[in-house]
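[INFO] parsing input record for Ring-cleaving dioxygenase
[DEBUG] input buffer:
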Amino acid sequence: MSPVEITGLDHLVLTVASIERTVAFYAGVLGLRAEPFGADPVRWALHFGTQKFNLHEAGHEFEPRAASPTPGSVDVCLITRTPLDEVVAALAEHRVPIIEGPVTRTGAQGRIRSVYVRDPDANLVEIATY
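[DEBUG] output buffer:
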């Protein structure tokens, strides 16, 4: 029997304190596309490329869920086509402090240049370009 072959990431669930604040940051600052889906209750997703973040508000998570869903427990790297100096300028325009960078790191496909920020729940968000 051959091993399972994983080919990509479809979505990741972010547990957040406030859907509204999270959407404002990821859509308003980073340009992800916010879309409602489902019904009763309506759920929210943030789309980028061929992936998305599904949002669960803390205390109102959907089943099945992580064993210990907690706002602020994620460390994620998002890849952009936007030149990093333009990313830095956009972050400054939105008054989002850079906590580290630009720095050179190693991504899944090689060298990347990155800046690190925190989202409204204090998740670590690395924004990088190859």
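[INFO] The chain has a mean pLDDT of 96.
[INFO] shutting down worker
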